[in-house]
Amino acid sequence: MIAELVSVGTEILLGNIVNTNSAYLSEKCALLGLSVYYQTVVGDNEARMKETVRTALDRSDVVIFTGGLGPTEDDMTKEVVADVMGLSMAEDEHSRKRIETYMKQYEKNDKKRRITSNNYKQALVPEGALVLDNQNGTAPGLIIEKNGKTAILLPGPPNEMKPMFEEEVYPFLRKKQPEIIYSQMIKICGIGESQVAEEIQDLIENQTNPTIAPYAKTGEVHLRITAKGESEKECKKMIKPVVRELKNRFGKNIFATEEDKTLEEAVVDMLKDQGLKLSLVESCTGGAVAARIVNVPGASQVFTHGYVTYSNRAKRRCIGVKKSTLKMEGAVSAKCAKEMAKGGCVVSGTDISLSITGLAGPDGGTKETPVGTVFMGCCYNGKVETREFHFTGNRRKIREQASAHALVMLRECIMEGIYKKD
């Protein structure tokens, strides 16, 4: 079946909000085996909305609308869809009672608020529509079927739309689609996108079902293996040998095989498994690596200290970098990174410490040390390894790349034999 997504709202066209709904729904439709050929954003204009609805219903089997179900005059999605599909509107008593209960609770929580009559506009629904209760708001969702076409109307706020889709719409569409699509992710770090692409070129050239699709991310490459079949069990069976082959080719560079697992989560898990305590000493990244680590639940079990030694004085006083090193080698040097990492272990008493020092720009670079030069050090069990990197882009991009590669280096340092405890 062909599905189409229509996002309603002038605020999206003006860039006031980011349209995350379409990205979410596209992924869910793909998992259902639906083919999404078009995504449209239309403002709160009746004439343009009617044209959009007609076009979408003409070329697609299922059209999913988000937004425009609220109580104000510019919320007109269901009215326009009903008009185009030739359906009259009537109040749904069940929806009115739910809205009334919700609004009374809302009024009770804030005495200054009052229930306005326009809220009950949300209880008007097209004849014959399947009404979807909104557990997180007032506007109900709708499923309308006529002449072989299906229009699905969902509220715009993601915290209302997503639960409604997962609880009501996904099961509805699953029954209509005989085949499903199942995917598994392989996440790789430590090697670039071009190298990964070269390594799997033969697999991609010969693929039919399942397929492999690479996605590049800063410091990482993700491979999505997707199979189409009659059941999830059948899809998993087809995917299994492909995953096995990818593990044979990329080995230790694979840090996750779960969709939601991040690189920082993989690092924290490794630290937990080995019973290690971590400290970070950052300069040009300004605590960005620490921020990624503490995003992981349970990071406090392994991450004890984070130092942002941005100035030379801070490097000397907080971490113990030698004055002579800063004078002779400079703050952006392998020797400074080495002393920062070693000092991190000493002053914090941790098992492993990673340091980052560099030039994020846009100023400060020289011919010998251009903007984008970053040195990292990792001290583990008294031994220190340093690495030199040269990143490109603006200040934000350089810091982002440095943070990602720091996590890669930390992971590799934990894994490598030269850092194993004696």
Explain how this protein is built.
With 422 residues, the chain is of the alpha/beta class. Helix content is 41%, strand content 25%. The protein is built from 15 helices and 17 strands. The protein has helices spanning 10-13, 20-31, 46-59, 77-84, 93-109, 158-176, 193-199, 201-205, 232-250, 263-274, 288-294, 312-319, 323-328, 334-348, 395-415; strands spanning 2-8, 35-42, 62-66, 89-91, 124-126, 130-132, 141-146, 149-154, 180-189, 211-217, 220-229, 254-256, 278-282, 303-308, 352-358, 373-380, 383-390. The strands form 4 sheets. A 6-stranded mixed beta sheet has the order 2-1-3-8-7-6, sandwiched between helices. A hairpin with a 2-residue loop joins strand 10 (211-217) and strand 11.
How is the secondary structure organized here?
Layout: E1 2-8, H1 10-13, H2 20-31, E2 35-42, H3 46-59, E3 62-66, H4 77-84, E4 89-91, H5 93-109, E5 124-126, E6 130-132, E7 141-146, E8 149-154, H6 158-176, E9 180-189, H7 193-199, H8 201-205, E10 211-217, E11 220-229, H9 232-250, E12 254-256, H10 263-274, E13 278-282, H11 288-294, E14 303-308, H12 312-319, H13 323-328, H14 334-348, E15 352-358, E16 373-380, E17 383-390, H15 395-415
Helix pairs in contact: 2-6, 3-4, 10-15
